[in-house]
Amino acid sequence: MRENKNSTVLWDTEVDRSVLRKKFHSKTVSRRDYTSVQIKKVKKQRKWEAKSGIHLPKRDAKNDIERLLVSRRTRRVPSNREINLQDISDLLQFAAGITDEKHQYFSYPSPGALYPCTLFLSINLAGFKEKIYRYNPYKHQLEEYIDASMKRIELIVIDEGLRKFPIKIFFASDYQLLEDKYGELSYRLLNQEIGHIAQNISLYSEYLGINTTCIGGFYEEQFKQYVPNFDLLYVMVVG
Length: 239
Ligand SMILES: Cc1cc2nc3c(=O)[nH]c(=O)nc-3n(C[C@H](O)[C@H](O)[C@H](O)COP(=O)(O)O)c2cc1C
What we know:
Distance between the termini: 52 Å
Strand content: 15-25%
Bound molecules: flavin mononucleotide
Number of helices: 7
Shape: globular
Number of domains: 1
Number of strands: 10
């Protein structure tokens, strides 16, 4: 039974708009002891049916944005570049922060301007605590979300080599407002938004001379021990 502002309705016929997402999400989670996800080697060539069309002339990069796009690569070892608080602040401001204070718009596009993705960070650098921080873009600050030892945080990342990066960025969501508005479409939209943020972080880090790797291989339940109300959808290591 559902209470309505004006009346009480006997049957709630509106379906739970999060059912599909919960089912899909739960079926694709990697666990330390078990995974239903099978990663297989693919030996086949990618098919591309040849068609005639308009030839597009390629040329060398000639300005900063083109050179940045050309140079972006997944770099699986940390750079030797020293990273300070200002670098982290700049990275978050320009790649994932509010760039239009008046309208509260961010540096990346978002479905319905709802900004459903929240960034959590672990930072193994001088001056930072053994905490999971949450980036608050509204105040542009790193909030001390919860205590967490670096060693345990590292275990979220499956690849041991990638655990060595000093900064780990966790892309998470509690789906606030999103499913009320977009229902079953939400999961796609959320992941699309996350892709934009990750690309901003990749490119801006490349510009700073800092290495990054985007990671689909992570143990979400390790993260949820600390942040139970958010799903973990993507991880980046930066350093
Ligand atoms: C969604 C996604 C998930 C990825 N997951 C991993 C990962 O778990 N581990 C890893 O080493 N690289 C990962 N990568 C990086 C890809 O392997 C890499 O982008 C690809 O090999 C192309 O190389 P490039 O990024 O240097 O152009 C991922 C990339 C994307 C977009």
